[in-house]
Amino acid sequence: xxxxxxxxxxxxxxxxxxxxxxxxxxxxxxxxxxxxxxxxxxxxxxxxxxxxxxxxxxxxxxxxxxxxxxxxxxxxxxxxxxxxxxxxxxxxxxxxxxxxxxxxxxxxxxxxxxxxxxxxxxxxxxxxxxxxxxxxxxxxxxxxxxxxxxxxxxxxxxxxxxxxxxxxxxxxxxxxxxxxxxxxxxxxxxxxxxxxxxxxxxxxxxxxxxxxxxxxxxxxxxxxxxxxxxxxxxxxxxxxxxxxxxxxxxxxxxxxxxxxxxxxxxxxxxxxxxxxxxxxxxxxxxxxxxxxxxxxxxxxxxxxxxxxxxxxx
Length: 313
Fold this sequence. Notes:
Layout: E1 2-6, H1 12-22, E2 26-31, E3 45-47, H2 53-63, E4 67-70, H3 75-85, E5 91-95, H4 124-140, E6 144-149, E7 152-153, H5 168-175, E8 180-183, E9 189-190, E10 193-194, H6 195-208, E11 215-218, E12 224-225, H7 226-236, E13 243-246, H8 248-254, H9 261-267, H10 276-282, H11 290-303
Parallel strand pairs: 1-2, 1-4, 2-3, 4-5, 5-6, 6-11, 7-10, 8-13
Antiparallel strand pairs: 9-12
Helix pairs in contact: 1-6, 2-3, 3-4, 7-11
């Protein structure tokens, strides 16, 4: 199958491209051409800024893909893509987020759960993206599938820290054995998924020959607490960092330069999504443990100069 990956040069995209190639698909990547990319040299690159609407439409039509995997489009971009591709492709797979379920009414969150928008907590932009595709599916039969991953980690990006961001400074603090402060009591749930497992989900959607009009949560089977997540990092870095706890708002007040306040409030909500539907319908079964995924992330950070440690990763 000829598959166009939109946004194929950053964190998720290169992993998706490689998985597609391994599965035997013909792959093209569309992006702005502003980022160095580790894509295979024989993967054609289409340079295009999606904000140039005429050029974006033309690029989509010229590529003539059988399927499209989108890792970065916003709601307005999706309107353009749907209009250009309607009736021309077999499947359009969009990258959403389980952040649309937050604050979660039930745990684990399921695809059919009602969405309650809470400004500043719910991922409203992701929900708006989903609505565009679901509307096009209902009105025009557009072959959309929505993938909703949880927090993604793995080589290619700094993992989520526990102050609401993806900052190397947090991990360096742990590597140096300095005290680490966690918000509240450290019992909020987090559910990281390795980027390789996420990439496999896109391939499974295409291989299954179904999923059109469906939404799939993609993550690991279990969640862990903030304290356990930090424990994985501490163990891998062989750190002796003492752990302290502070109420979330107090942590924000005391460390305004280090803490992303809005993101921290979001991450102090429980994050735990049910992946049973993807398992039943697609055969999705995550393989990378939290420990191995974090180890690979930290190795990448060391290689890229984001982290200094003597721990044998």
